[in-house]
Amino acid sequence: EPGTGDANADTNLFASSNQSDDNRLLDLLRGRLVYAASQENSQTLELNRQPVRRLWDTDPSYGSIAFDPRTGKVFLQDLNLWAIRIFDRMTNTPANATRSEPERVIQGKNTELQFNTCMYIDPLNGDIYTVENDIGDSIKVFSQDASGNTAPKRNLKVTHRAHTITVDEQREELFVSVNYPPQVEVYRKTASGNDKPLRVVTGESTRLADVHGIALDQKANELFVNNWGHISQYNVAGSGRFEEPSITVYPVDANGDTAPLRVIQGARTQLDWPGAMFVDPDKGEVYVTNSVGQSILVFGAKDRGDVAPRRIIKGPKTGLSYPSSLTVDVKNQELWVSNLGNASATAYPLTANGDTLPLRTIRSAPANKVSLKFGKTQAVTYDTKREEILVPN
């Protein structure tokens, strides 16, 4: 190693995470040079050696999808390469093509995109909202025509582990789900900087538990929230427990420790790592991505208890692979889904059911791609008996 004079010094190095330089972790994740300190002599060293080999995915991993009804463009959030890729809704990757190229890409250090998990496109002016789920603790807002290494035009600091966003355009309110502590924060739509939420839904009575997807029924004035069911107080030993995944429903103006109006929960629901949701107020239906279930579930908006979905999109013909997010093109009555497992987005008729072929597929990787599905990997270890690398995400 440069500056050490000791060929074995690298075995005792660990990456520095000094708060005085928050970019070091980002540099490490992006493959740039980083600095480390030796545990033996506390010297600062520059790490620039090449790895023996690298296990990584060079294709996008699409964790979120959004649709611009003004322009007919599909926006895909890339968790792996930290980018937003924009395609036309009519893009349909030929079977013999390696991939479809986007019309433009938002990507680069100035964008401050990291582990962003949800997008919202303003239907009035096309502004692009995107929330960061890891160390960024923020919502970035880009202009409608943003491209390349462009800085966001607005930044809102939010609670750590913010995950999903949606907007009540009538009330001009921005809703933000937070994984833990489980809560839903509500801000002014135009909030920025260190603005505080107008109200927060949180507490034991809410039955929130590892919150993920949220959606609004603006006709019924209701807020839908789905929960993975993991509950704990990190500072209280033995407080952790698992409950079944659920969808909880509240008045849109709920505040504080508000009990849900109704709950969808139980074995018949088939909920398994539910994610993004959409409420169709005209049809009275709720669409839910169901990642581990490899499916899209459709419930009635007034369903409650242990109820089976009205429809399920699932099967080998669908092209679904760990569906992570969905959006609806209301004008063309199409359901769009992003697939974390194969770097694709698939479009279906809004009334699709069963093992349905997609109308179109946008691929950003070769056909039959199987993504590594890395997501915020950390604390990798090695099982010497099975000779396996274990990667927590």
CATH topology name of the largest domain, in short, is Neuraminidase
Physical arrangement of strands within the biggest beta sheet: 4-5-6-7
Number of strands: 31
What integer is the average pLDDT? 90
Can you describe this structure?
With 393 residues, this protein is mostly beta strands. The chain folds into 2 domains: 1-54, no CATH class; 62-363, TolB, C-terminal domain (Neuraminidase, 6 Propeller). Helices cover 2% and strands 39% of the residues. It is built from 1 helix and 31 strands. The chain has one helix at residues 23-29; strands at residues 13-15, 34-38, 44-47, 62-68, 73-78, 83-88, 104-107, 116-121, 128-132, 138-142, 154-157, 162-168, 173-178, 183-188, 199-201, 211-217, 222-227, 230-231, 241-242, 246-251, 262-265, 274-280, 285-290, 295-300, 311-313, 323-329, 334-339, 344-349, 360-363, 381-383, 388-390. The strands form 9 sheets. A 4-stranded antiparallel β-sheet has the order 4-5-6-7, with no helix packed on it. Strands 8-9-10-11 form a 4-stranded antiparallel β-sheet, with no helix packed on it. The protein has a 4-stranded antiparallel β-sheet with strand order 12-13-14-15, with no helix packed on it. A hairpin with a 4-residue loop joins β12 (162-168) and β13 (173-178). It is globular. The two termini are 30 Å apart. Residues 1-21 have low confidence and may be disordered.
Give the tags.
Neuraminidase; mainly beta; four-stranded antiparallel β-sheet; 393 residues; 31 strands; single chain; 1 helix; disordered N terminus
